[in-house]
UniProtKB/TrEMBL annotation, chain A:
Gene from which this protein is expressed: ecfA2_3
Keywords carried by this UniProt record: ATP-binding, Cell membrane, Hydrolase, Membrane, Nucleotide-binding, Translocase, Transport
Recorded topology in the membrane: Peripheral membrane protein
Family label: Belongs to the ABC transporter superfamily.
EC annotation from Swiss-Prot or TrEMBL: 3.6.3.-
Source organism of the structure: Neomoorella thermoacetica (Clostridium thermoaceticum)
Top-level EC class: hydrolase
Name the UniProt record assigns to this protein: Energy-coupling factor transporter ATP-binding protein EcfA2
Location of the protein in the cell: Cell membrane
TrEMBL record, chain B:
Annotated family: Belongs to the ABC transporter superfamily.
GO molecular function, one term: ATP hydrolysis activity
EC number: 3.6.3.-
Protein name according to UniProt: Energy-coupling factor transporter ATP-binding protein EcfA2
């Protein structure tokens, strides 16, 4: 089966000469809920921006649904891959929430009636209320601003949604809310989700597949439990598995598995061992 | 010696309808490490803005109650004096940047307080090493990755060697090992130089390992403050306020509810590992 996004030998240099990506190969498939992790400056944000054509390859190709990002139009790209910025405040520039969400659809030339439908749909999906529509985005708390940013992407109905650091600056409760919401988009509406993050407990809980970057290259790619059971390999990219996974790994001699991902799982294993150890 | 004292502090931003701080009392002794937690919008950032004079000098609003640094009422103390004591790492690193290169960004503050060239050079080497930013000196700060920006923001404040170091979500964009390194660095600064630290974080894994005391702020008030170990032992209160302790603490909290965890709750992997292996060995 053809991959939805096919990245082939992608290299990217910034104008000042910084080589941020070196011959990256990656296939993103239907059904993926993928976390992109790795060291600061390893190229995660750069790669994400290449996936929807904000940045064009210096070398190599990125194919999205058959379209080559270096030649496809902006309209063709934004309908397929949406990117929510690392700091959503950098993407919000309209003076009320309605116009902010309507900006994308208007920009690709939709009629105002269609624009309105899309804004209302996106607003409903992200759980914003009607009364929020007239508010200036900067008067909303962080969690809601994040939702406005996601809604403005959703209004373009892209297949792939990339969120760069969705939980940064959010308290745990808000983090779970956002991630549950992305999971719903994935499971109910069939979106491919890519999150870029340093929040390992969130990766462990939500991502099905993990791609690890170091120095502009992909150094690991696999199912979440598999990737997190190789701590030495991960440390090359300044990453550590979640604390609960590491606790399991420190108890291998007592028969604990090396790939426990969640707190509740660990609690169940400990309990079982306490009950059944004679 | 007392470094911070806050007495019944209330603050309302002029554009806000309600008071953001609703009667905060806080006391901090020099050389201590205080962690502050609380949900989004609780008033954490607002609270630390009152310590370096941003409130009330830069923001407009109504202030009641008093804030003292080294016994000086902040409202009767020149801002320059406050900023010479208090260094603040902003949660948004870009809010801090004023220069065209990372090097200027780091040097600017030091020149401003009149350090000589030799001292500036020595401190520059020191902070870039600690924060792994030496290779970025030539770059404009806005052409960095998110985590690199945050490293520069931390470096520029550390270079000033403040007596009170305040960090507002300082590691939210750092990779996991970078995050650990920063916490190790500030814990060492506390030990070796006796500086006082206030850190706000949502991720409590690292804070729990280094803080002497923890305070929970919710809806403009400090609901609970205690020594770190005791703080996290009040598991139900934290959960009720939507605060999630470190994962190993959560695990033990779940087991304790079901009667499977004797003793106090662990705060790090080592404590958890010891307690688990002990009870398994005993069972054998
Ligand atoms: N606008 C820019 N101009 C020049 N270099 C840049 C620019 N943006 C990023 N870089 C550099 O490109 C490299 C990759 O940056 P990128 O933002 O992709 O990293 P990242 O993996 O997202 O890191 P982080 O985890 O810190 O967000 C870094 O060395 C960074 O300094
Ligand atoms: N300049 C301002 N004018 C008006 N209201 C403000 C201003 N800054 C903050 N507020 C309000 O004060 C309250 C507390 O904000 P503050 O930023 O101190 O919270 P916080 O605990 O730091 O939250 P977070 O975890 O999201 O950083 C919020 O309701 C916020 O909307
Ligand atoms: Mg990034
Ligand atoms: Mg804050």
């Amino acid at each position: 089966m053809a991959a939805y996004i096919d990245v082939q030998n992608l290299s990217y240099s910034y104008p000042d000469g910084t080589l941020a990506l070196r011959k990256v190969n990656l296939r993103v498939n239907n059904g993926d809920f993928l976390a992109l992790i790795g060291q600061n400056g390893s190229g995660k944000t750069t790669l994400s921006k290449c996936l929807n054509g904000i940045l064009k390859p210096t070398d190599g190709t990125v194919l999205v649904d058959g379209f080559d990002t270096s030649t496809a139009s902006v309209a063709e790209m934004v309908r397929r891959v949406g990117y929510v910025f690392q700091n959503p405040d950098h993407q919000i520039f309209n003076s009320n929430v309605y116009d902010e969400i309507a900006y994308g659809p208007r920009n690709i030339g939709l009629r105002e009636a269609e624009v309105k439908d899309r804004v209302i749909e996106a607003t409903r999906v992200v759980g914003l209320k009607d009364e929020h529509l007239s508010v200036h985005p900067f008067f909303l708390p962080k969690g809601l601003r994040q939702r406005v940013a996601i809604a403005s992407i959703l209004a373009l109905r892209p297949k792939v949604i990339i969120v760069d650091e969705p939980t940064t600056g959010q308290d745990m409760y808000q983090s779970f809310e956002i991630m549950n919401f992305l999971t719903e988009l994935h499971e109910k509406n069939g979106h491919i989700i890519i999150i870029v993050t340093h929040d390992m407990p969130i990766v462990a809980r939500y991502a099905k597949r993990v791609v690890v970057m170091a120095m502009g290259q992909i150094i690991m790619d696999g199912p979440t439990a598999e990737v997190f059971s190789h701590p030495e390999e991960l440390s090359k990219s300044f990453v550590k598995p979640p604390q609960i996974t590491r606790l399991g790994q420190s108890l291998l001699t007592y028969g604990f598995p090396p790939n426990i991902l969640r707190v509740e799982e660990m609690a169940a294993v400990v309990k079982e061992k306490m009950v059944f150890t004679p | 010696m007392e470094i911070v004292r806050i007495e019944d502090l209330r603050w309302k931003y002029s554009e806000a309808r309600e008071y953001t701080l609703k009667g905060v009392n806080l006391f901090l002794e020099e050389g201590k490490f205080l962690g502050i937690v609380g949900p989004n919008g609780a008033g954490k950032t607002t609270l630390v803005y009152t310590l370096n004079g941003l409130i009330p000098y830069r923001y407009n609003g109504i202030k009641k109650g008093r804030v003292f640094i080294y016994g000086h009422d902040t409202e009767a103390t020149p801002v320059e004096k406050l900023t010479s004591w208090v260094g603040l790492v902003f949660s948004d690193p870009e809010a801090q940047f004023t220069s065209m290169t990372v090097e200027d960004e780091l040097v600017f503050g030091m020149e401003n307080i009149g350090l000589d060239r030799k001292e500036i050079k020595a401190r520059l080497e020191w902070v870039t090493e600690l924060t792994n930013t030496a290779s970025l000196l030539e770059k404009p700060p806005y052409e960095l990755s998110g985590g690199q920006k945050q490293r520069v923001a931390i470096a520029s404040v550390l270079a000033m060697k403040p007596k009170l170091l305040i960090m507002d979500e300082p590691t939210s964009m750092l990779d996991p090992i970078g995050r650990e390194t920063i916490f190790e660095v500030i814990a060492r600064l506390k030990q070796e130089e006796g500086i006082t630290i206030i850190a706000i974080e949502h991720n409590l894994e690292l804070l729990a390992a280094v803080a002497d005391d923890m305070a929970l702020l919710n809806d403009g008030q400090i609901i609970f403050q205690a020594q770190t170990r005791e703080f996290f032992n009040n598991y139900d209160l934290l959960i009720a306020n939507q605060i999630y302790p470190p994962e190993v603490t959560q695990m033990a909290g779940i087991l304790r509810k079901e009667g499977y965890w004797p003793g106090s709750l662990p705060l790090n992997i080592e404590q958890a590992r010891k307690q688990i292996s002990k009870s398994l060995v005993r069972a054998v």
